[in-house]
Structure formats: structure tokens, C-alpha cells
Protein: S1 family peptidase
Amino acid sequence: MFKLLAALAASTLLVVGTASPASAIAYGENARDGAYRFSVLLTMTGLPTADRGTRDSSCSGALIAPTWVITAGHCFRDAKGRKVSRTVAESTKATVGRTLVSGGRGGQVVEVIAVRQSETTDVALAELAAPVTGITPLRVATYPPSPGETLRLTGFGLTADQTPAERLQTGRFTIDAVGDSLLETSGTAPQDDTSPCPHDSGGPYFRTTDAGPELVAVVSGGPGCPHTGPDYSARTDNISDWITATTASTGHSRLYLAALIPLTLVVVALLVWAYRRTRADPGSRPGLGR
Structure:
């Protein structure tokens, strides 16, 4: 089983290097209105292509802090297919807290302004231009998953007939194997061939606890959908320290910048005032005094 996970690690690199994203949930079920509000649709408009053109795409993700979304690292790639720690599209927007893809009420749409890539697995953190309010972020697990454990997945990818989902999809999965950075998960409900599809990349696998839902992994790669048997997801519990440090440090930077900007404006205003005062008083300029 772990040889399969090792082979998957190599195959994931191939997934990362391709131009096609991951998909929505085949043979999933419609999420009920207002459920799983931490689920995120990332919409990329104007992605560069190798032939110097552009294309549009999307990924799934989850809100894990007021200004941070977690998703798959390969959702942010340059025209050569390399993962990068920056936005790539002309515009990348995160739609949070909305069950319907279009025409839905509620939720918030916020621009993505920065990206941080994990150095050890296919995970990226996307920073938002403004905090999302009124939605509880998904807590990141800090202890490892176990084979046989049941997880739930949400995503906005394609459905079984390869058409875009009109609303958030969800399904249940069982963990088959646990590797150092990857999980094997197989669909169990609504069907045994419930599986992630394109544009489900970055969608959250989470467990249910007494304290609420808890993130375990994000969709990374796998066979074409629909299918029975395992898909592959990137663990998040063993990078939880990096996730916490990244989301916390930027929050402190925001506070610092918020305090620095007004102070800078005051200093500039004083310098301008002093300059104008000097020019208005000839006696203060050298060589012109009496």
C-alpha cells in the first residue's frame, strides 16, 4: 500500500505539471442550503498559457482564517506548469459561504492578493484582500488521520457527466492508507464510485468532531472520475505549524502596516509644511538674509 503512495508522490508531480485542474465530485450529493459555509470556490480569470494566450479555470478550497483560504498547491502554477507563491491569473476571486455557484444569496466574494506554497506537499494558502466575516473558518487538525476513518469532502468541480456543478457538492469517503504527505481515500456515499472530479482540487476532506468539523487533507490528484477505489489528497495535520505561523504572521504584518500608514502620512505632511514655510520666508534662506 505504501509503495502505491510512493508511486502517487511521483504521479502528483505529473498532475502539478499539467495545465488541467482537478475536478468536482462525481456521484456526490447537493449540499443543503447554509451547510459547510467554509467551503470556497476559487475562480481564476486570465490564466497565462504556454502559447502566450489565456484561459479561465477554478479550484475548490476552505476558509481556515478570516483572510486565508487553503487549497491545492497546483492551483497556482505559471504558464510552464510550475507551482509559484503568487497569484497567476489576471484576477483570482474567492467565493465563500455560498451554496449555489451563480445567483445564490449571501456569501462573500473577495480578491486573492497573495499565495504561500508548502515546501513539503501539494498545499497552498491564499491570502484574501479583506477579512471574511460571519463565517466560522474550518479548524485544521493537529493529529494524524487513521486508516478506516470516515471523512467528508466538499467541492465545486465537475459532476459525473463532466458538467460544472450548479451548487456545492459533498460526499463521504474512507481512508485506505496514510503516507507521510498523502492519503488514499475511497468513496463510500452516496455511492462507492463517489469521487473527486476536475476543479475539486483543493477541496477539503474533514472529519466531524464534538468541537465541530476539522480539516484533515485537501484534494490533490487521482484517476479520472467517476471511479471506485482511491483518490489522493495532501495531508494538512503535519503542516499545521506552518499553516498557523503563516496565517498569524501576516495578521501581525497587517496591524503593523495599518499603524505605519497614518504615521507616514503625518511625517510627509510635516515635511511638506516645513518646506513651504521655508520657501515663504526669504530670511531663512542662506545668502538672502539682511
